[in-house]
Structures are given as structure tokens and as C-alpha cells.
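Check my protein:
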Amino acid sequence: MKNYISEVIVQLSSNEASFRLERLYVNKLNIILVQILKHEWPARWRSFIPDLVAAAKTSETICENCMVILKLLSEEVFDFSRGEMTQQKIKELKQSLNSEFQLIHELCLYVLSASQRTELIRATLSTLHAFLSWIPLGYIFESPLLETLLKFFPIPSYRNLTLQCLTEVAALNFGDFYNLQYVKMYNIFMVQLQAILPLATNIPEAYAHGSNEEQAFIQNLALFFTSFYKCHIRVLETSQENISALLMGLEYLTNISYVDDTEVFKVCLDYWNSLVLELFEAHHNLDNPAVTANMMGLQMPLLHGVVDGIGSQILQRRQLYANPMSKLRMLMICRMAKPEEVLIVEDENGNIVRETMKDNDVLVQYKIMRETLIYLSHLDHEDTEKQMLKKLSKQLSGEDWSWNNLNTLCWAIGSISGSMMEEQENRFLVMVIRDLLNLCEITKGKDNKAVIASNIMYVVGQYPRFLRAHWKFLKTVVNKLFEFMHETHPGVQDMACDTFLKIVQKCKRKFVIVQVGESEPFVSELLTGLPTTVADLEPHQIHTFYESVGHMIQAEPDPQKRDEYLQRLMDLPNQKWAEIIGQARQSVDFLKDQEVIRTVLNILQTNTSVASSLGTYFLSQISLIFLDMLNVYRMYSELISSSIAEGGPYASKTSYVKLLRSVKRETLKLIETFLDKAEEQPQIGKQFVPPMMDPVLGDYARNLPDARESEVLSLFATIINKYKAAMIDDVPRIFEAVFQCTLEMITKNFEDYPEHRLKFFSLLRAIATHCFPALIRLSSQQLKLVMDSIIWAFRHTERNIAETGLNLLLEMLKNFQASEFCNQFYRTYFLTIEQEIFAVLTDTFHKPGFKLHVLVLQHLFCLVESGALTEPLWDATTVPYPYPNNAIFVREYTIKLLGTSFPNMTASEVTQFVNGLFESRADLSVFKNHIRDFLVQSKEFSAQDNKDLYAEEAAAQRERERQRMLSIPGLIAPNELQDEMLDS
């Protein structure tokens, strides 16, 4: 076989002319050869490598192809083998290649020192690059390899390949043993780099006009610096000579970070973020000796003698990086990504337009840049402020004016909200907002004004704390937003309404008190001018505006004033509503006109917006329109039914029927929003629920499936969750109206009526939680329907439905355990539930439900071991002999069940697993880990992504990360915090 392989290699490479002409053919044969070697003859590798090296020495052409084969071999074993071969086989192949690497190493060095053939040297460097990440370190640091690579770096035709090799070496990190070699390599590299690319070079410009090879060099340079610094930056901080080279390298990396290429910037940003975080954490922990002690593994008493020295080192290090960090602040300001709240963008033709779709990559980049800039701000607030204000003054003077420059500056200013002390933030914001308002006044041109308006709105929306403390600024800003609401440039009105809502939510109390120098509260002034303010807004913008004013009114403590404000706010829609109802009383046909239907829909949406912000205080308004609203609902429902009955299934797709249904849905949404937001007052339930029984519930039961609104189910789920046991007497009627007919709709398949599915199970869960006695009164056939539907739900592949079904099942199990029907229920359903839960637990499709599957199984095993079940779970007519107790029966039943489900597992493995379930049942953490280990080890799960089995731990980690972020001012933006409105 050895001779055969050798012959193939020589044949592949011997004829130089044909080798050049048929390179593609040769490469294909190379790949086939490597696949054969990888899979068929691993035992023969020890003879193959010497054979290959020997063949390589016969001619430079053959040598070049041997290098290609070696590179392919390394890539196959190290990069592409996951999932194809067992870990043991990969390990054996690696060890075999590793032990034979000396010959490859000698061959590479020989070629690099002796050959003049460009293609061969490039092939050799490429092969080295494939091997460098895993070969024994001695081959790199205790041989002339590094020195040889550095000799090739200045030569243009080898530069990129050499740099890739040096980057692989830079990324290796095995302690301090080779520190001296790394320092030497870095210093030689920096001397060579200055000759190739002088530090004064405008790298972004050079990149923009460079060839593909030159652009690749800049990309590789970014990878080299970031790889080296991630692993070895501390080594370069040890002497002045090394520090100079380090600072020069950081200067290069900063300049590369300005290159207009997303991938290059991502590489740089990733490193800057990690460096700034490291510097910040050291600085942040200086004030907390306990954290410092923990980081160093010291006891607190031992720390006091050390802490001053550590503090001094941290401050020195911070000083060392002060200048690079200052330049990095400017980089972040100049390149800040667009935040989610900004709706106005420049298109590819240079026009200012409204954004139509969010770019998730940009949002991820913004998050990382924002975090980096906040850490930089904490490291030096003064420098951050100075750089931002200087750049803003250049916008005003026109020296640095451009849309992009203003955008990135304002996005950066908004991103550091909350990171400064309040006094400093106030001083900073006064200057920023004043300058931006001035810029808006002096700048001509509609597009220019739209860009400035967008930035003013974004910045003020990010600083609620400042606005709460400065009424005059707050009033000026809100009035400016009202101006922008008349600006018809795409996106400006949307952003003005969104910003107004965001500001009002955080500053609502300021608008309902009489401020110094004012004759009335701002809300009163606003309501007087309301028709003018909203005159140019679209309906959806008016709804946002009304929601905002609702928040203001909600903050008014005087009930009389509150009702007066609400009446004034709703005056326009109420006039229109009264007019429509009056006309309808003359002729019902008036309500059938499409324009009238649209107006009714708009009025209802406006009411819903106000109800969402006012809650209980919306009572007077909804009482005014409630009965008329139900009459309109009934009439439109009849129209829909007759249209579908006459026009068949396609009638439900017509624009007319869709419009009528929109009114029905909005009616249900308005009632649900009010009842959900209102305080739990029984009289509200008594006032609103009985009148809805026939127009809403009866209508649902009578209607065709395609005409039933899923919102009916969520409305009654909300009502039961709100009024709890007070609804017990109404449950039979609710059940009768929705249960059977909805089940028929949703159990035919897993696709139809998706909204009905989820809302139906949410309603069932509300009943099981708050009105359980009503479920006990169901007949056994009805209860079986309930249990069958729950099982159907958690079998569902739609995550929300399965999760709702499992939560509902847990409620039922606990409630029945505590009831007088405990034995009767579990005798009927225990084994079915266990079997079905094990089915979804082990089928690999339902991993997201893992946590709930575990809770159900724990409940079942704890229940049988507790002795709470006093009647046998087995069927005496089919079981040949009685069991001593239910626990022994369930244990045996479970072993049989799993033995059948997992035929690839031995009986002893299954028995051991089941015994472990019973032994660990009392400790949820141990119980869960026991089940997870069993699943991960089983054949079905072993080759899959099992992250959903660890979702609970991942959620706990996210919560820890959130707590960490909360401890650092600004990391969670102030407008995202659920603050307690600290108004004075």
C-alpha cells in the first residue's frame, strides 16, 4: 500500500507541464487521496508521512503538491471532522500527525531556506498556517521557524501568508514560558511593519484605493494585533522599550479601526471592547477590596498590605493607556452604530428617508459600541465630554458638518446616558441641547432639518433624569416635538410621537403641576391646543399621542381634575362617535359604509390607547360608550356571518369582511385592555361582564368557525385572572360557549387557527388556577375532553402552546392532589400523563419544555412515594398479582415503559436510571441533572444541540449579567429602567 500511495503522489505531480495545465484535476485527486487516508488507513500513517516527505524531495513540483496534500490533511482532521468521526478517532489521527510532524517541520524549513520557487514557498507557508495552531510549541519557539517567518514578512508576494502564520502563533497562549520569544517576535515585527506601512499612512484611504492583496494585508494586520494583544499585552507592559512598541501597535490598530469595512471593524471592535472592559473592571474594583481579594484568591486580612501596591499598579496601567483610550473615544464617537429608536436614515441615493426594516447586525454592533463607550466614559468622564462638545462645536461652525458626522455624534451622546454623575450630566446636556436647537434654527434645507430633528429627538429621549430636573428644557423640548409633528418629512412625525411618549412616561408628573412662572399645568395648555397639534398626524400617530396624554392625566392626583382632563382629551373622538351613533339610530345601514367603519375603528383604537395608559381612571369614558359599542359589535357580527354564509369561505378574505372583523377585534381589545389595567374592583367586573355574555360569548358559540374571534378567549382569560373566584358561577356558561366548538377547530391538525390555540389554553389555565371548583363539577366526559386537550397541547411543536399546556397540567395536578377527588383523578390519568410526558421528554422535538417536563415527573414520583394515593393505580383485571404499594408498581411500570422506548439501552441501565429518579425526587436540582444526563447520554440526543436542556441555567446566567449591568451606571439605559419617578 505504501508504494501505491507513493506512486499516486508522484503521478499526480511528475509532469510539470501537465501539472500546471490540469491543476483543478490534480486538486480533485488530492482531495480523494486525503479522504482515503483519513478513513481507511490511519494505522499506516507512520509510513505515509515519511513516504510523502521522501516523494517531496524528488522535485520542486512534487514538493509543491505534497504541501497541498499535507495542508488538506491537516484541515480534514482538525477543521472538518466534527460530526464525521468519533472523538477517539480524531484524537488518534492528531497524535499520529503530531508524532510525525518533525519530518514535516524539517521539510518546511528546508524549502523556506533553499527554494527560490515562489509557488512552492507560498504552498509551504500555506501548509505551515494549517499546522501552526496545534503542533508542539517546541517546533515554533525552539527552532529557526519564527526567525524564518519574520524574514519572509517584508517580501510582498509572501507577506499575507506569513502574516497569517504569525497570527496563529500570536493566538497561542501557554503561560509565561515563551514570553521572551513573543517580545522579540513583536519588536522585530514592528520594525519591519514601519518600513512596509509607515505609521503616518492614512490607512482608511489606502484601504479604499488598495488592491485585493493590499486590503487583505490590512485585514490580516488587524487579526495579528488583536490576537497578540488578547494573549500577550501584559508582557509588553514590562519595559519602556516594549511599551513604546505596544503604543505604536495600538496606534496602528486605531487607524485600522477607521477602515470602511464591516468585517475589519468587527475584529477591531471585539478587541477594543475586551480591553476597555478589563481596564474598567480593574478601576471599578479598586473601591471594593473584597472583590479585589476574591480576584487574587486572597483572604481579606492578607489583602490590606497588598491593596495599596495593586491600586498603584492599576492607576499606572490606566495612565499608560490614557492616550490610546482618548483616541478610542473619538473612534467610537465617529463610528457609532445606529440605535433602534432612530427611524430616519440616508438611503443609497443620498436621500433622507424613513427606515423600513431593522438591521439586526447594526443593532448588535450598537450594543457592543455603546457598552464600550460607557466603560470609556467611566474611565475618564472629562475627556469623553470634552471630545463630544468639541465635535459638536465643529458641527455648528460648519467645519465638520455632515449628516453622518452629526448622526454618529448624537448617537454616541445618547448612548452614554446615565454614566455620568447627575451634576456633570446636567451641565453637559444643557450645552448639547442648546447647541442642537441652535443648529436646527440656523441650518437651511428640508433634509438637513430632518436629520437634526431626528438627532434632537433621539438625544432628549435618552435623558429623562435631566428633563425631570429642568422644566424649561423639558417644555422647550416638548414644544419642539409638537413642531416636528407638523413636519411631513418621512419618519419625523413617527419619531416625534415615539419620543413624546417615551418622555411623558418618565416625566408625567411634571406636566400636571403648575410650574414656576406658569398660570396652569402644561397638560391643560396642551388640551386647549390639541386639535391644532394633531392636525397633521396619521391615525397611528394620533393613537400614540393620545396614549402619551393618558399617562399625563394618570399622574393627576385630584379625581375631579382627572375626569375633566379626560373629558377634554376625548372630546374630538366622542363628538364623532355621538354623530355616528345618532345617524345609526336613524338608519342602521349608515354603519355599513366602509368609511364609517374605518372611522369607528379609529375611534375605538384611540380609546384603547388611552385605556392602556389610564387604567382604572378610564372608567368614566368607557362607561359612556360601552353599550353602544356592544350594539355595534352585535350588528357587525351579524353582517360578517351573513356575508360568509352567502359568499362561502372566500368571503372571509374580502376587504369588507376583514374591516368589519377589525372593529370586532378592537372592541374586544379595548374591553380587555381596560379590565386588565384597571385595579381589581369587583363592581367594575359586575358592571361590564354580564352585558357581554350574549353579544360576545353567545355570538362566539353561534358563529361559523372562520368568523370566531380568538380575542374572545383572551378577553375571558383576562377577566378570570382579574376577578378570580368571583367568576366561578360564570365558568359553566363560558365553558359551554367556547370549549367544544374551539376544540373542534384546533384539534383537526397542528396548523389551523394558531391564535385560537394559544388563547384557548390560556383561558383553560386561568379557569384551572382561579376557578378550579368549576372544573370539578364537569362530567367525566367533559373532564376527559379537558385532559385530552392538555395532552394535545404539550405535544404541540409550537413552543408557546406546549409551554401553556404544561403549565396548565401542573396547575391541574396540584389542584386535584389537594381535592377530595385525588384518588379518582390519578387512577384515571396518572399512567397516561407519565407516558405522554416521557414521550415528549425523549423525542428530541420538545427540548424547550425540559424544565416543565421535569417538574411534572417530579410531582408524579413524589406523589406516589408520599402515600397520598390510597387506591391502587393498576387495573386489577389486567395485572396478574397485586403490588405492595403504588410506588413499587410505578417503578416497575416506568422501567418497562423506558425499556421499550430505548431498545439500545440495557435493562440494567434503564433500571439504574429509574431508581435514580425515585432516589433524587425530593431535590429538584439533582432530579433534573439526573434526567438531563440520561438524555445527553442516549443515542437520540448525543449528536444534537442540547442547549435547550440547559435553558434554566442560561436564564440564571442572564439574570446575573443583568444584575452586574445594573451595578454599573449607564449600562442599562435610564429609559429602560423601571424607575420610581424620583420627581421633586
Summary: The chain has a mean pLDDT of 84. Strands lie at 344-346, 352-354. The CA atoms of residues 515 and 521 lie 7 Å apart.
